Amino acid sequence: MLHQVRLFFIALQFFTRVPIPGWTGFQPEWLHQSARYFPLVGAVVGLWSAAVLWLAMLVFPNSVAVVLAMAASIWLTGGFHEDGLADTCDGLGGAVSRERALEIMKDSRLGSYGALGLFLMLGLKAATLVGLADADPTLALTALLWAHLASRAAPVWLMHALPYAGDAAHAKAKPLATQIGGAELGMAMGTVVLASGLWAWLLPDDIPLLLGAIVTGAGLTFFMQSLLERRLGGYTGDNLGATQQVVEVGALLACLGLGAYF
């Protein structure tokens, strides 16, 4: 049990600014094993973002509250996933070879495709959250929390289904360049199932929206898998962050779109 707590803290440290106990320690293989807790880390980020959104909506218009909530989540994660999105857009935006795409994604400079992708994704997320908050504040808070949690399972799936596309020996996080086993994938997906069941139990009227978010998230995950397999023959760390962002915003969009009918 103590080892499982240690794995969670390692995942939390890797993806956020949250300080962890000094006794946690670190072994490279632990980061690989900690993938099972990526959705749980998403729950921490989602709770933080939802709390800021709830408090801000008490004082400010929904548009301002949403920007503050997004800023809070980006601060907590250090823009880790957004950086991956920008690099992926730069690498895959043009009609370049696999080798050139991998080279571009290693470049820390932000290109035009990356800037456009980041701007459009953040703008779409903000507009979607404002729409949800205007329609139903409770739904906005719930969907935001769930989307943060569930979208962190998408990279775990990619790490299970695809090989690493770059040079594993020189990867920024070498343990994440190793394919994930069934135990890690099962626990990550199990967390999503439990969170989905809790949402359905607490707010049964939202079940159609939840199902739409699940289908959309799964569809976008498989789309990203197909795209990465075709263009790169696998995934890189940047692609994992990009996939998380795509699935998160897609799930929120599904809730907003279906909310007009249910």
From TrEMBL:
Which keywords does the record carry?
Cell membrane, Cobalamin biosynthesis, Magnesium, Membrane, Transferase, Transmembrane, Transmembrane helix
Which pathway, metabolic or otherwise, does it act in?
A: Cofactor biosynthesis; adenosylcobalamin biosynthesis; adenosylcobalamin from cob(II)yrinate a,c-diamide: step 7/7
Its placement in the membrane is given as: Multi-pass membrane protein
Q: Which reaction does it catalyse?
A: alpha-ribazole + adenosylcob(III)inamide-GDP = adenosylcob(III)alamin + GMP + H(+); alpha-ribazole 5'-phosphate + adenosylcob(III)inamide-GDP = adenosylcob(III)alamin 5'-phosphate + GMP + H(+)
The Gene Ontology terms for molecular function here are: adenosylcobinamide-GDP ribazoletransferase activity; cobalamin 5'-phosphate synthase activity
Where is it found, in Gene Ontology cellular component terms? Answer: plasma membrane
Where does the chain cross the membrane?
Answer: 7-26, 38-60, 110-133, 180-201, 207-228
Cofactor(s) needed:
Mg(2+)
User: Which BP terms from GO are recorded?
Assistant: cobalamin biosynthetic process
Give the first-level EC class, as a single word. transferase
Q: Which residues form the signal peptide?
A: none
Q: Which domain of life is it from?
A: Bacteria
Compartment(s) = Cell membrane
State the InterPro entries in the record. Answer: CobS
Q: EC annotation?
A: 2.7.8.26
Q: What does this protein do?
A: Joins adenosylcobinamide-GDP and alpha-ribazole to generate adenosylcobalamin (Ado-cobalamin). Also synthesizes adenosylcobalamin 5'-phosphate from adenosylcobinamide-GDP and alpha-ribazole 5'-phosphate.
Q: Which family does it belong to?
A: Belongs to the CobS family.
- Protein name (Swiss-Prot/TrEMBL): Adenosylcobinamide-GDP ribazoletransferase
Q: Which organism is it from?
A: Roseateles depolymerans
